[in-house]
Amino acid sequence: MTTLTAEPAYWSTAQKITFRFFMIFFVLYVLLNPNAVAPFTFGLFNLYIAPFHALIPWLAKHVLHLSRPITEFTGGSGDTTYDYVILLFLTTLSAIGAIIWSITGRKTHNYNKLLYWLTVIVRYYVAITMVSYGSAKIIKLQFPSPSFGRLIEPVGSMSPMGLAWTYMGYSVGFNYFTGFAELIAGLLLFFRKTTTLGAIVGLVVAGNIMAINYCFDVPVKLLSTALVFMCLFLMIRDTTRLINFFFRNREALPSNLSPHRFKAKWKNITLAAIKYLLVAFTLFSNFANSISLAKQYGDNAKKPPLYGIYNVERFIKNNDTLPPLTTDTLRWSKFWISYVDGITIKLMNDSTKFYPATMDTVKHQIVVNNAVTLNYTFEKPDIMILKGIWKKDSISVRVHKLDPKNFSLLKRGFHWVNEVPFNK
Length: 424
Description:
- By secondary structure, this protein is of the alpha+beta class.
- It folds into two domains: 13-297, no CATH class; 308-408, Lipocalin.
- It has twelve helices and nine strands.
- The protein has helices at residues 13-32, 42-62, 81-104, 112-138, 148-152, 160-170, 172-189, 195-215, 221-236, 239-248, 265-297, 408-411; strands spanning 308-317, 320-321, 332-339, 342-347, 352-360, 365-368, 372-380, 383-390, 393-402.
- Helix 4 packs antiparallel against helix 7.
């Protein structure tokens, strides 16, 4: 008979107090930062989060006396002032709750059953988040290939996050590597017997995400840090076993993975059915959503008419040819069309601006801001002439379409053999 690591019948006071804090903290964190992990709950979240969008700014102003009012909530950034204040709020609430619980629950010997269910909540939260992240990388949606603007932007002009996104977006293979690592971690965490392995893999993966977020100023520091702590939490019950195995070269008894079952058989069957439906739904919905979005925004999305990057060879304003002076704020240097809804123009002084625009391939026109019409003709397949009124001046612009593959970043490719490093 295999001897299993026994669940302790008596917990120390410190263990019980710590558990009470994290029990409240993790449940509150999942509720206030659901990260779309539960299906069909987005509408419900918007209902119960609304009061917090009023409470947290009030606390920030009247209790914390912050100098600036909170106007931004969790969205494009997960590190807003709101996010930090709500983290402080739920930490304080967890501490108060743990104190009250410790006073009222002094006679409780252990929380083995509650620990089991808290572990279920945490591992499913991390698992679904990892699957979501992994699918966005495997489909190559989160990190698109370097845009035309990135290709001509000096490295020193990039933001740290822009540099990280370019680094990640350049390599399809690296997206697969990181994406499958996240997917594997998530799948392992869905099942009790592979929870510890999933937590170890998840710790490495989430640690890497956290390092990138901190070192490249990516505004998802709080969530990635929470994922790291959650993976550590999932490993904590196996601390002695892991230390014995990895560091002491001692026997590590099998962990007690016996599930906490209900007496009624139908409840256990229902829970098992819900679990496998949730796993299937998570995989299907995330990949289906990523594939759908990739068709609209990904590397293989349908390209707009005149898609490409163009170098301005000649710029005539009111019959005067403007020389390519770097101080000129009217003459174009380059322009590119990446999206169906606009063009981006780079001036000689290196400033860029995006203009909403539509392209009519029948009339050979580009309509900018629903007001300015530029007519275009082709001298050659890669030479285009633009004519029209721009900022009340008549312009004629001769542009040469560039081949993005001629940029060293895209041209270099992969080499097994390098006699000398190609580092320019």
